[in-house]
Prior knowledge:
Blueprint (H helix, E strand, L loop, with lengths): L1 H16 L23 E7 L3 E2 L33 H4 L6 H16 L2 E6 L8 E16 L19 E15 L4 E16 L10 H23 L15
Parallel strand pairs: 1-3, 1-4, 2-4
Antiparallel strand pairs: 4-5, 5-6
Amino acid sequence: MVMRTASYLLICPLAILSGCMTLNGPLAYRYVPPLSNDPPLPFRVSIEKFSDERPALTPGTPSSSQEGPEPDQSGAQPEPVAGSGDREATQRIEPVDAQVTMALLEDFRMSRFFESVEYADSLKSSALVLRGTIWRFTWSERPSPIVFMPVINLLALCGIHIEYTSATVSFHIELIDSRTDKRITEYDLSEQIEDAFTLYDQSAESGAELAMALRSVSQQLKASIRADYESGKFSSIPSGGGTRR
């Protein structure tokens, strides 16, 4: 039994290298919107399809070494990080712009955050338009160096971490007055979630961290919008629908 386990651990590096290091293999990424008991805001909102401005991988640039863009204090939109390889890491769930848009649309609907919310092409009269830019949306997995060390990797039997995962989500979102097409407010939102797994964490779900990061950004967005509403930032917006130009 011990020899069989040792043999398994000695070939474990090959198994990990041949597995899913990004969300390009069989994946379990599923977004489940959070629920809310707060009363809906009295606006009809249309969500436009988000613009995917994520960077592609620059040859020789490790994607795991990049950080998400920091919001500009002047209010300008941050530039995407060159070479971080977000697009290559999530090819299996393309098109990401449509997936993210529909996930947030369903989130707003299920949580009844607004009086009504629809996709931009399906709503004729809305008071607000939500526009978004995707700066980061990626998930990656890397093995611990100990996995590649013969004999030493037997320590995996003691429950040490042998895999590490990381998910990063970063959006720039604007709320627009549908009557004038002028921006009312904007938000720079981001979340990074990391996790580590042992040999015994067989129930871990690939991509779960990405769904958690997206859910966190959604909650940040709704909290920011509600705070702005309560502070009177939307006082010039009529309740219900509007007339778009």
